[in-house]
Design brief:
The longest helix is centred in the first third of the chain and has 44 residues. The chain starts with 5 loop residues before the first helix and ends with a strand. It is mostly helical and 565 residues long. The protein is built from 17 helices and 19 strands. 49% of the residues lie in helices and 11% in strands.
């Protein structure tokens, strides 16, 4: 048969498609308004989700964990049993034998002169070289900006006060990078503006910028750092609210001195943000002789000590005006973490004078051990869970790894039987935190893990932000015990960062730690130099470099000299 001509076919196609095109056009016009509204709603929702922290939904986590368990079965077959393998044998899928929860030997106190902690020169040099690489990239492409974007070789702003530069001052000093320190000091003297006309995080500005300036002043004696700290501290004082508890606003404009809550918080304060500013304001009072700074911050701490729940653990949200706790979500990870850290450290920095602060710490650690600690199967890894509506949420943030160091730091101040318990739990948590990185192809830990019965855990949040908490724990545990395994574990973690996060001009976070050549997020966090590399450096330093009986670290790893009575 004779086929129709192309012209005839084209005409038929046009007549067939014309009604469809007309219907589609009418539909798009009719629904344009609703689509616009939907996009606006999605945009608003996205902004709330992208806030620094998000509220944890227990039901969602339960579903995600079930999905993760199915993925384990599909991808890896039957659950491995690392604990049943002969010693030294690699477990299926590259997993390593977890070993026992703790060595079984009793803690006999911090190393004495007979067990003196000496430096590990080669590893010190490696960490110093990594810090130098990170700093050179920042200085070349982002000097004076908040953070380096190493892939695009530019800088980014979110505080507007040279966050990486100020955050790194004490690290540069400790590592002997005096030329770099001098250039950074010159920038602080001539370019640091503490009256930025944008809303910035009250909490982050306090721990990173105020804390960084005060620590740099203590170590170097350069008055310019104290002068800038006073200017900033005076402006931050306007960020405390007018309610009966005077909780600080989550954000403050340092030019207009106007404070506000973040939209997603809806006039609710975050526990960690109001309970992790005390050390910095105490240090400012110490160096100025003016008690107004510490009185303002410690008033909040006193209130929290007086209202501690019977189990020692606090909900992570507080109503800003009244100070009443909101909800029943308990976490020593995101949004709760550093408040628990400051319970002990504020007591230490205050010369161990306020017994109620130490009682608050003791009760909180008892609550953590009783209500939040759990173990995985089959390896028996100890992890710190969360709790919502009285139900244990089987996940652990990398942020939570600081608990191992906190328990070890406080062990010498609690009764002997409790100190043994705390050190055993610290060791178990540290082992789990080591496994979080070593079970990944990148050897870099994810943001959090989900615990799966029969498979220990799977990666929860697959990204990594170069966080310091595990290296912090290894540093404190090594200083408190002299056990070399903590140095070995710390070296593994540092090596993973060096292997998987290094770029030509710095280091980047990872988007998926489960991929061998992991995609990068193009951001070198300010705390990489302030905390991660500093704790790695101190881990391999001699014991007389920032000794723990003479210094206390703020939550951004800025060391403050202890007040000795």
């Amino acid at each position: 048969r004779r086929l129709p001509s192309l012209k005839t076919v084209a005409i038929c196609v046009v007549f067939l498609l014309l009604p469809l095109h007309w219907s589609t056009w009418r539909y798009s016009q009719e629904h344009a308004a609703s689509s616009s509204q939907l996009l606006a709603g999605l945009s608003s929702l996205t902004q709330r989700i992208e806030a620094r922290y998000a509220r944890t939904d227990a039901r969602l986590l339960e579903i995600e964990t079930k999905i993760a368990k199915l993925n384990v079965v599909i991808q890896r077959g039957p659950a491995p049993n690392p604990a049943g393998l002969p010693s030294g044998t690699a477990a299926p899928g590259g997993w390593e034998e977890a070993g026992p929860l703790h060595s079984g030997t009793k803690w006999t106190g911090k190393p004495t002169d007979g067990r003196k902690i000496v430096a590990a020169p080669e590893r010190l040099a490696a960490v110093r070289a990594a810090a130098g690489h990170a700093w050179r990239g920042y200085e070349q492409f982002a000097f004076g900006k908040d953070e380096l974007k190493p892939l695009t070789r530019t800088g980014s702003h979110w505080l507007g006060m040279g966050a990486t530069l100020v955050d790194s001052l004490d690290t540069l000093w400790l590592m002997g990078m005096k030329d770099e320190f001098a250039r950074a000091q010159d920038w602080v003297a001539n370019h640091l503006n503490v009256e930025v006309d944008v809303y910035v995080s009250f909490f982050e500005t306090t721990i990173r910028v105020l804390g960084g300036l005060l620590s740099a002043y203590e170590l170097s004696g350069e008055r310019v750092f104290l002068s800038k700290a006073i200017q900033l501290g005076d402006r931050l004082m306007s960020g405390f609210g007018n309610g009966p508890r005077q909780l600080p606003f989550s954000q403050i404009n340092l030019k207009t001195l106007h404070g506000k809550s973040q939209d997603w918080l809806q006039n609710t304060a975050v526990l960690a943000e109001v309970g992790t500013i005390q050390l910095e304001f105490m240090a400012l009072s110490r160096h100025t002789g003016d008690p107004k700074y510490k009185h303002k911050a410690l008033k909040i701490f006193d209130y929290l000590a007086q209202t501690q729940p019977s189990n020692g653990l606090y909900p992570i949200f507080i109503e800003s005006a009244s100070g009443n706790f909101q909800g029943d979500q308990i976490s020593v990870g995101a949004m709760g973490d550093s408040f628990y850290e400051y319970m002990l450290k504020v007591w230490l920095y205050g010369g161990r004078q306020k017994d109620e602060y130490f009682r608050m710490y003791s009760a909180a650690m008892a609550g953590v051990i009783k209500e939040l600690l759990a173990t995985t199967t089959p390896s028996g890894l100890l992890y710190v869970a969360e709790r919502t509506a009285g139900t244990l949420v089987p996940k652990m943030d990398h942020l939570t790894c600081f608990v191992a160091g906190l328990l070890a730091l406080g062990a010498e101040f609690v009764p002997p039987d409790v100190s043994q318990l705390h050190m055993a739990k610290a060791d178990g948590i540290a082992r789990t935190c080591r496994e979080m990185s070593q079970r990944q192809p990148t050897k870099v830990a994810p943001e959090f893990i989900s615990v799966v019965p029969g498979s220990d855990f799977v990666t929860g949040g697959k990204n990594s932000l170069q966080r310091p908490e595990t290296l912090e724990a290894m540093f404190v545990l090594y200083r408190q015990t002299g056990d070399n395994k903590y140095r070995e574990w710390g070296w593994e973690i540092f090596s993973g960062i060096e292997k998987s996060c290094k770029t030509d001009v710095g280091y980047s976070g990872l988007l998926d730690v489960e991929q061998v050549a992991a995609p990068m997020d193009d951001l070198q966090q300010s705390f990489l130099l302030a905390e991660t590399f500093k704790y790695a450096y101190l881990l391999f330093s001699a014991g007389d470099v920032i000794p723990l009986d003479e210094f206390v670290f703020n939550t951004e790893a800025h060391p403050f000299k202890l007040v000795m009575n």
